[in-house]
Amino acid sequence: MSVDRGGGHNRSGSIGRNGTHTKDDSSSYSSGLQVIDENKEFTAELPAYLTAQKLITAGFSYHVVAVFGSQSTGKSTLLNHLFGTQFSVMDEQARRQTTKGIWMSRAVEDTKRSDPRGMGNNILVMDVEGTDGRERGEDQDFERKSALFALATSEVLIVNIWEHQVGLYQGANMGLLKTVFEVNLGLFLKDKSTTHRSLLFFVIRDHIGHTPLQNLSNTLMQDLNRIWSSLSKPPGLEDSRISDFFDFEFVALPHKILQPERFVEETQKLQKRFREGISPGVDATSGSNGVSQRGGGGGVFLPVYHRRIPADGFPHYASGVWTQIVTNKDLDLPSQQELLAQYRCDEIAATCTAGFNQIMSPFEEQAKTGRVLEGLGSAMGGALSEAMGGFEESGGRYHKGVFERKREDLRENLEGRLRGLVVGQFSALSKRAVQEFTEEVTSILKVANAPGRSTSSNYDFAVVVGQTRDKAVDRFTTEASELRIPGAEWSDHENELTSLQIALDEIAARLRGEEMKRLVARLEKAIRIKLAEPVELEFRRMEDDSKEKGNLWDRVWKVWTETVGEGVEGFLTRAGSLNATEKERDIGAWKLRRKAWGVLKAKIEEEVMEGNILLKLRESFEDRFRYDEQGVPRVWKPTDPIEQTYTTAREATLKLIPLISRIRLSSGAEPPLAEFLGDPPSDFEEDVDEMGIAKDEFEVIGEAKQVDLSTRFKRMADAVFVEAKRSTVSSVAEIPIFFWGLLLALGWNELWAILRSPVYFIFLLLCGAAAYVVYTLNLWGPILRITNAMGQQAIDIGKERLRDIVADQNVAHPEAVDRTKGVYDDSGIIKLQTLDSEGRRRTGIKQEDDDE
Ligand SMILES: Nc1nc2c(ncn2[C@@H]2O[C@H](COP(=O)(O)OP(=O)(O)OP(=O)(O)O)[C@@H](O)[C@H]2O)c(=O)[nH]1
């Protein structure tokens, strides 16, 4: 068993020869990774291997090189020398196949060399199972497939031949190369414009030096050209030359066994060329004979050889290529690259979307509440740029067309989600702006309208609304601008801003309307309060009628118009500060005047309510009847013309009833209400008919009520008259003095008997003392009332008894008297002449008096 370069594994004991590795331990891949085993199975561990080798993130900064040649010709030995790999090398004693399938290993860093590009060891080296081995015998299937695989994935294909094989057909693998050239033509059939090339790097082993390298390379080139011309080329490529697809290089190495030092020396030179990449100034064009013009110097890997597969996509690409090859399908590399791009772009997009989700999902959850999402703008910007940036960085290395398509898909998908959030956020911001605006303006209005603040409170509604509106709009604009995504029209908030401004204006108009209504209501109340006293006063002196001041209604109208005029003036001043339109001001003023008329009507109705007006009429009557012209109360004497005074006073008072029954100025005309109110505004929101002037607008008391009022008043006046008359009668019915003399003369004996009898005298004294006590305690009133009540009770019982007796005897009362007949005289004055002579009349009059 031999170990090449002191560290290589022997064929039986090498780690990984059975294809099993620990994925995350790079040391376990010391012999590399068997990417395709002898059963043509592609490993699933390639991504793990590249990750362990820290190549997965290399992007395009890596190279792939494969070796190709007959079995046991020192391929693995060469690779190990060139790249520091530890591919297994055959035991010299056994001489049998060591490399089965295809192995891959990353070049080991050469610490002795400086590597300006930092990618000297970013080389994936593929050790391919040797061709022409006795183990596979006639079965050339695997060697064809592996050669094709190596060609499709590698930039440089090292063709390893011994010097003595040059000129041979099978020994120099010319048969296999023919197959390779053939399939290579097919690889890019679909994309003939491709500039893709490969380098066939011939390493001639055991070069003794007898035949110069130039001669050997000429021989090989002649053979290659001959093979090329004998190929059956697909349509369109009939005239193509081998140099259209391949570059060639020829290098000779000394005999490893016979000239070990020189062998090492030459391999080190070669190693340098592989490690250093391309030398400056060297272009990718090949010479006319297809041999690279780099000659023996310069780097090996030209950009044109690169398959443009990013390192992270390499495992998938290689696996896809192999699957195509194994299943004998046409291997179409461009479409393979597209497929890879699709696969990888999807994978990258999924990773980027996951990162995006991590940031945005919490916002999407919160958005369901419909509230404003704090920090949404910055989160959105960050999440989108991070996702798109990540995608562009990783996906941008893949097939351009696919990448761009996938990038648009990803952007569309992510922006679609953001769009939902942005629309929701716009709506939430707008809602909040409306709410805050309404609340703020309402609270300012509430403070301004607080009790105790006058209607001319020192605030300007228009200014308040303007400032609050600007504040709401500014906040909306600031926060909505944060949601702007460059290039996304839908994230523009202009439309939402316009809608918000319209909504705020509508709210301002509504609040102003409400404020105007409140103002009208406040002024209406103020007018009601202001009108109350003057109107009451005018009704107290309703009989006053002078030229200067006019009648009751002249004065009431004047008071009303003045008060309303002041109110309307106040309204117009306040409406100006509310920024109300002229129309709104007209409507408000008209409404205020109309409502003030209602206030006056209500006040008048209150004044003419039955009890009130009767009282006022009585007062007016009594003023005339009970007081003389100087205002001194009258004490009636029998000689006084009571009836005449009564008639005059009554008639004068009765005249007031028609006056107060209808609002009419002293001129006889109705007040100019219509002119005062003005024409109702044209498009008034309330029913103008309801608020318009009715036909009977000036009627205060209806006819039926007037009659009723007259009757009631007359009865009341009668009572006053009867009372006045009675006071005269009682003064007439005084006891004459002679009666007292007669009483003393006739009762002298009885008086003397009482004075002389101690019993009577003491009884008299007791009675006197009792009377004195009653007098001092002021108990006469209660005693008299009790006595009266008892007497009345006795009379009622007596009457009841009498009725029962009469009813029992079924006797009709023959002298039923019409209660009213004969009670009033022709002039309507109640008859009192039989008051003290005729018992029946007295009863009748008494009855009337009692009724009153
Ligand atoms: N004469 C000669 N022998 C060599 C040279 N290089 C390697 N060998 C020997 O050739 C034998 C085969 O070497 P490997 O490197 O295993 O050959 P291989 O082509 O990788 O073999 P397989 O992987 O089985 O196809 C070993 O015994 C090496 O020592 C060389 O340049 N000249």
Largest beta-sheet details: 7 strands, mixed
CATH superfamily of the largest domain: P-loop containing nucleotide triphosphate hydrolases
Which ligands accompany this protein?
Answer: guanosine-5'-triphosphate
The residue ranges in which pLDDT falls below 50 over 5 or more consecutive positions are: 1-26, 114-119, 279-293, 810-822, 833-852
How many domains? The number is: 3
Per CATH, what is the topology of the largest domain? Answer: Rossmann fold
Mean pLDDT: 79
What's the helix count? 25
Taking the alpha carbons of the first and last residues, their distance comes to: 152 Å
Structural class: mainly alpha
Shape: rod-shaped
Q: How much strand?
A: 5-15%
CATH architecture of the largest domain: 3-Layer(aba) Sandwich
- Number of DSSP-assigned strands: 7
What is the CATH class designation of the largest domain?
Answer: Alpha Beta
The portion of residues assigned to helices is 40-55%
Radius of gyration over all CA atoms, rounded: 65 Å
